[in-house]
Amino acid sequence: MSDNPGFTPNEMMTIAASRALRNDDVCFVGIGAPSAACNVARLTHAPDITLIYESGTIGTAPDVLPLSIGDGELCETAVTTVAVPEMFRYWLQGGRISIGFLGAAQLDKFGNINTTVIGDYFHPKTRLPGGGGAPEIATSSKEIYITMAQTKRGMVEKIDFFTSFGHGEGGDHRKRLGIDTAGPTLLITDLAIWKPDPVSKEFTVVSLHPGVTREQVQESCGWVVKFAEALDETPAPSELELKTLRDLQARTKAAHEGTGKAKAA
Amino acid sequence: MVKFLPLKQAVAENLNDGDTVAFEGFTHLIPTAAAHEAIRQGFRDLTLIRMTPDLIYDQMIGMGMAKKIVFSYVGNPGVGLLRRARDAIENGFPHSLEIEEHSHAGMANAYEAGAAGLPCAVFRGYRGAGLAAVNPNIKSVACPFTGEVLAAVPSIRPDVTFIHAQKADRKGNVLVEGIIGIQKEAVLAAKRAVVTVEEVVDNFDDLHPNLTVLPRWTIAAISVVPGGSHPSYAHGYYARDNAAYLEWDEIAADREKFQAWMQANVMEKSADDFEARVEHLRKAA
Q1: Shortest CB distance from B81 goes to which of A93, A129, A139?
Q2: Does the structure show a pLDDT above 70 at A180?
Q3: What is the pLDDT of residue A265?
Q4: In chain B, which among 54-93 make CB contacts under 8 A with chain A?
């Protein structure tokens, strides 16, 4: 990054991720960076995008980002709210989700995700929350987008636990397991945009965010990074994109700290 | 037949040491008052089932009541890790904890199978995921028609399920609306169900006919506990106390701070204290 680009790497990540979503997408949204990206998309270029949270809210349009997947506003602003078994059986397993949008604690170059444990499963160094909806989101959504800030600890050669299956060992591994969805097709980090190689399925950098060097991408990644021959530069956030994201985060912060209650009253 | 009882009595009559119990609620209508009453009565060796064992299971585990947890997401949603649960899993404090881990889809299907009286649930799940290798209760079956290999998990059949709901009518029918989660399945899967409600109304005559209603004969006991799901929320009554979820992370991070908080806010309190806790959240709902 240059010294003062007018936006942070995290803002660039969220905005780049929001641009990948289309107006006609039906998106199963994870909490955190995916939720921010999906709502920026809805508030800018994709007003009709269908956002689904695993608590059962379909077509929700929250004014602030939810702290949990079941905040009241998700239900109040949704087209409909269904029971959790219906969510997973009819809507996800039924093949009605175009994009599953996931974050990761650990990620490998084939888009396999770990959010379960660091270390051995039965004697973990760190017990993480686990998969929640992710194991089936990863295989039943038509495509998977992943977003995370790059660190050497997070982007590793070998993940400690397969919470959600990406491309496994690469190549046609998904097909061999009888999984007929595309799996991870896009990775957006705070430094770059990555896409899987069409044959090996290894994530390859296709676009560097403004001011980011190849060396920076490699220094914060635990595997040897491949770069596309024709490397793009990600367009910087527009004023509208930045304002939309910052307003959303300011409303969210006020609401979660409790100061939003006075306003609501 | 359903009985209207004070919460203390409803818990004492329906929960026993060693029971398999579900306190369900999927981020909404979490039965906190019922869980706190169980903590005050000091049950032991419980098998705790819940898709998202958030604060109340962190509290029960920290108080040494749990022998085993069955779950699909052991976190404080949007905040991070459950620190008392972690201390039990990573360090065996206050004692070791057996775990049975699933995905949300696995748990939802298992509850539904329990409600349907089936021995197991079959669904398209766990493909390529590591859980199947570490949880012997995740197996596979081939579809007898297509040959497709599907995941199978045993149905969930709790001894007792606790839920919180908006309303009961005078006969004891119970109404749930908003994010309805897994509560209906958790009640119908259980041998006994105890429901805490915000209020009792004469009847449901003026309400929409498609709202989720659990008929009175599916429930053992109802207790009226306004505010009984704080810090989660009751759609139409009061908002989620997100600040309390953020604060919990700090309280649970320290063993002594946790004990002091439990003493002041659970052990020395009663179900009647919940109403005041949601007063400032009612306007925001």
Answers
A1: A129
A2: yes
A3: 29
A4: 71-75, 77-82, 85-86, 89-90
Instruction: Tell me the C-alpha distance between B124 and B141, whole Å.
Output: 10
Model confidence band, residue B53 (pLDDT cutoffs 50, 70, 90): very high
The answer to whether the CB atoms of A136 and B124 lie below 8 A apart is yes
- Rg (chain B; Cα; Å): 19
Contacts 24+ apart (CB under 8 A), A70-75: A70/B26, A70/B27, A70/B28, A70/B77, A70/B179, A70/B181, A71/B27, A71/B240, A71/B242, A72/B28, A72/B178, A72/B179, A72/B233, A72/B235, A72/B239, A72/B240, A72/B285, A74/B179, A75/B28, A75/B178, A75/B179, A75/B235
Cα separation values, B139 from A9, A51, A174, B127, B153, Å: 43, 32, 19, 11, 6
CA distance between the termini of chain A: 42
Peptide bond into A9 cis (omega under 30): no
Taking CA atoms, what residue in B is nearest to A169? B128
Q: Cα(B109)–Cα(B132) distance, rounded to whole angstroms?
A: 16
Question: Looking at chain A from residue 20 to 49, which residues have their Cβ under 8 Å from any Cβ of chain B?
Answer: 31-32
ipTM of predicted complex: 0.95
Per residue in A128-157, pLDDT (tens digit) is 999 999 999 999 999 999 999 999 999 999
Token match 């810090």: residue? B231
Over the stretch A246-262, which tens digit does the pLDDT of each residue have?
Answer: 999 999 988 887 644 43
How close, in Å, is residue B211 to chain A by CA atoms?
11
B273 versus A256: which is more confidently predicted?
B273
pLDDT over 70, % of chain A: 95
Q: Is B134 on the interface with A (CB under 8 A)?
A: yes
Asked if B195 contacts B174 with a C-beta cutoff of 8 angstroms, the reply is yes
Distance from the Cα of A121 to chain B's closest Cα (Å) equals 8
For the segment B39-64, the average pLDDT, to the nearest whole number, is 97
- Tally Cβ neighbours within 10 Å of residue B92: 10
Q: Write b or e for each residue in B144-162: b if 16 or more Cβ atoms lie within 10 A of its Cβ, otherwise e.
A: eeeeeebbbbbbbbbbbbb
pTM: 0.95
Question: Which residue of A68, A137, A158 is the best one to mutate when testing the B interface, meaning the one whose CB has the most B CBs within 10 A?
Answer: A68
Is A54 noted as a catalytic residue in this protein? yes
Asked if A147 contacts A29 with a C-beta cutoff of 8 angstroms, the reply is: no
Q: Is A62 on the interface with B (CB under 8 A)?
A: no
Q: Inter-chain contact A70–B26, Cβ cutoff 8 Å?
A: yes
Nearest to B244 by CA among B101, B54, B74, B41: B54
Chain CA centroid to CA B103, Å: 16
Residue B11 CB partners (closer than 8 Å, separation 6+) = B34, B37, B38, B41, B194
Pair B283, A260: CB distance under 8 Å: no
User: Which chain B residues are Cβ-neighbours of A261 within 8 angstroms?
Assistant: 239, 280-281, 283-284
Cα–Cα distance between A257 and A261 in angstroms, integer? 9
